[in-house]
Specification:
This protein has 413 residues and is of the alpha+beta class. Strands 1, 4, 5, 6, 8, 9, 10, 11 and 12 form a nine-stranded mixed sheet that branches. A six-stranded antiparallel sheet has the order 15-17-16-19-14-18, sandwiched between helices. Strands 3-2-21-7 form a four-stranded antiparallel sheet. Helix 4 runs parallel beside helix 6. The protein starts with a strand and ends with a strand. 43% of the residues are buried.
């Protein structure tokens, strides 16, 4: 049986080059934003993760030339020794610092077999087009460059080992454009590697927090390479995918808020009366940031209100009891007519990093009619959904801080 995680020969920035290389995850910037962020930075990992920035504007994101350019840029940075690879498999301690928030995790290779068996558990649907894109990227580079963010239930011994490794001089310590500090240490001693592998093997599951498409594409690539292998053993590098796992109690989920274009023809008074059947509604003095699950802030007509779902409407089901589900099932759907938030053009989503002021701005401008602030989804709720083999509604979680692309990559030998 394959181990749940194992060390990897990480490929990353040469000493002193991390600040030149690291970049935001490929899927948090559009092409225009990536072009701006990479301007004057020839060694930014955006030239690999968003290679269309080096091609004429208007080039289709999924054209073969895009993946070829990614491979060429990747090879150039390896040949120039901007990116170098460790000689032996290692684990790495990865610490993220965002203001007062600090979280410390382990960079590892997660088992594709464990993912396929749902021991590395998911909570989101994936889209075939986005999977296809990542499959082509991995195939072109022969490497996984976007780490999957995992959570695990806290383990005191794992925490102790990682803290011990992080007490030494770091391999990299770089501050990104957004002020997030990314620090990396190498764990290369055999005893620590063996103990960490054993400790994780005792865990019943790991949980995908962010990176469902990267996980699914790694599984697809592994299946294709396995089918072509003449003597597959299950230990090949393609049988594992790049991950960073953090203890769940250190991870930070921000609110993921909603704005809606209209009140479905109702006046403000009619709308307030309709939502009163499912929610207790009271005016708020200033911004109504929710303070507990089941509570929502609503911005309408220049004023904030606090909504509380009626207790008898909260079911025991792990998905239906989520705040995103309660808002959808008792307000967005029945009152505003938004049947499918994935496809309805009347709704948009605002990550909590933008603050409640962004909700006010969207409504006050006339672009939107009403905004809803949600309490952040809790990690225990996410894990309960995954344990029940269920799927969360879209836009349920917004994790911050984000992992950097380029700090560690996993080459498929």
């Amino acid at each position: 049986m394959p181990t749940l995680i194992r060390p990897l020969r990480g490929l990353g920035p040469a000493p002193g080059r991390a600040a030149d290389v690291i970049a935001p995850p490929y899927d948090v910037l559009n092409s225009a934003e990536a072009r701006i962020r990479a301007r004057g930075r020839p060694d930014s990992f955006l030239h690999i993760s968003r290679p269309e920035i080096d091609l004429p504007e208007g080039t289709g994101l999924y054209e073969p030339v895009v993946y070829a350019r990614a491979a060429g840029n990747f090879r150039r940075m390896i040949d120039a020794r901007v990116l170098v690879r460790d000689d032996e498999p290692c684990y790495y301690v990865y610490r993220l610092r965002m203001g007062d928030h600090v979280q410390t995790g382990i960079v590892c290779a997660g088992s594709v077999a464990a993912y396929d068996a749902n021991r590395i558990r998911r909570h989101e649907y994936t889209r075939p087009d986005k999977e296809d894109d990542r499959v082509r990227q991995i195939t072109a580079l022969n490497a996984q460059t976007g780490p999957v963010l995992l959570a695990y239930k806290p383990d005191s011994r794992v925490r102790e080992i990682l803290a011990g490794a992080a007490s030494s001089r770091p391999l990299h310590d770089a501050t990104a454009d957004d002020g997030i500090v990314h620090t990396l240490w190498r764990i290369g001693d055999a005893a620590s590697i063996a103990e960490l592998s054993r400790l994780f093997d005792t865990m019943p599951a790991l949980y995908i927090a962010d990176g469902h498409h990267r996980s699914a594409s790694a599984s697809r690539v592994a299946a294709a390479l396995r089918a072509r292998a003449t003597r597959a053993t299950g230990t090949e590098s393609f049988e594992y995918f790049l991950c960073v796992a953090f203890p769940a109690d250190e991870m930070k989920i921000l609110d993921y808020n909603r704005v809606v274009k209209d009140l479905r023809g109702a006046t403000a008074g009619e709308f307030m009366a309709r939502i009163g059947t499912s929610f207790a509604v009271e005016p708020a003095a200033g911004q109504a940031r929710p303070t507990a699950p089941g509570e929502f802030g609503m911005y309408l007509g220049g004023a904030w209100h606090r909504l509380r779902i009626r207790r008898e409407l909260v079911p025991a089901d792990p998905v239906a009891s989520l705040d995103v589900s309660l808002l959808q099932d008792h307000l967005l759907g029945p009152v505003l007519g938004i049947a499918d938030p994935r496809t309805d053009k009347r709704i948009d989503f605002v990550g909590g990093m933008r603050g409640l002021g962004e909700l006010e701005k969207r409504v006050d401008s006339g672009e939107m009619a009403v905004a809803f602030a949600l309490y952040p989804t809790r990690m225990d709720a996410l894990m309960a959904v995954a344990d029940a083999n269920q799927v969360m509604p879209p836009k349920s979680t917004w994790f911050e801080p984000k992992l950097a692309d380029g700090l560690v990559s996993h080459v498929l030998d």
